[in-house]
Amino acid sequence: MSLLEVSGLRAGYGIVEVLFGLDFSVDEGELVVVLGANGAGKTTTLRAISGMIPCEGSITFDGAEVRGKRPDQLLSAGIAHVPQGRGTITALNVEDNLRVGAYQRSGREVDSDMELWLEAFPRLGERRDQQAGSMSGGEQQMLAIARAFMSRPRLLLLDEPSLGLAPLVTREVFDRLRDATSETGTAVLLVEQNANLALDFAGRAYVLEAGEIVAAGPAEELQHDETIQKAYLGL
């Protein structure tokens, strides 16, 4: 059984349906990417899984049905979500943002984990007392990811981490993310428009078009499939 199993997922906004019966899975420790053009339903997929919007179908995590649970309940179960736009608390400094990520935990382990992530993301360590809102976009993205890891998730939902970032900064964010997932064994379900970078990062990929999965398989195979590249990935 996979860590995350999604079956017949349907979701949308009001009377507008966006997802039309998605079936996919993420195994323990696996890195999976969801690709597709704007409007394909990528962000809606993560919002449905994380309890941000109503949905139909089945979402099981570690063998338990979690569809309909609130985001805080899913966080307690081991699912952390880094939404599009990062969601850092701009008025708080780096350390306080990290503590917010561990709000359901207590004790000395929180302090030790904070030092761990400040070391794993050196830019954050250099700016630990700096207000988040005064940091660069790349630094805020690293902070959002580190804050999610402070909850010790088993699955990280990550929405468009490259959005608005320069290529070199994006590469640094993904390098730090790869190191963090390797160190912790955390599974990742990544939504991303930078197809080449995402396929280099992930082991497996799904391609969405108009709310339906039109291709799936090992990331390396999709990366070298000319039909997929031209039709769906813009490569």
Rg estimate, integer Å: 17 Å
Topology pattern, helix = H, strand = E: EEEHEEHEHHHHEHEHEEHH
Rounded mean pLDDT is 92
Which sequence of strands runs across the widest sheet? 6-7-8-3-9-10
* Count of alpha and pi helical runs: 10
Task: Describe the model.
The model has no long low-confidence stretch (mean pLDDT 92). By secondary structure, the chain is of the alpha/beta class. Helix content is 39%, strand content 26%. Helix 3 runs parallel beside helix 6 (137-149) and helix 6 runs parallel beside helix 7 (167-184). The longest helix is centred in the C-terminal third of the chain and has 18 residues, at 167-184. The chain contains 10 helices and 10 strands. Strands 6-7-8-3-9-10 form a 6-stranded mixed beta sheet, with helices on both faces. The protein has a 4-stranded antiparallel beta sheet with strand order 2-1-4-5, covered by helices on one side.
Task: Give a quick set of tags describing it.
235 residues, four-stranded antiparallel beta sheet, alpha/beta, six-stranded mixed beta sheet
What's this, in brief?
This protein has 235 residues and is of the alpha/beta class.
Q: How would you summarize the topology of this molecule?
A:
Layout: E1 4-13, E2 16-26, E3 31-35, H1 42-49, E4 55-61, E5 64-65, H2 71-77, E6 79-82, H3 94-101, H4 108-120, H5 122-126, H6 137-149, E7 155-159, H7 167-184, E8 187-191, H8 195-201, E9 204-209, E10 212-218, H9 219-223, H10 226-233
Parallel strand pairs: 3-8, 3-9, 6-7, 7-8
Antiparallel strand pairs: 1-2, 1-4, 4-5, 9-10
Helix pairs in contact: 3-6, 6-7
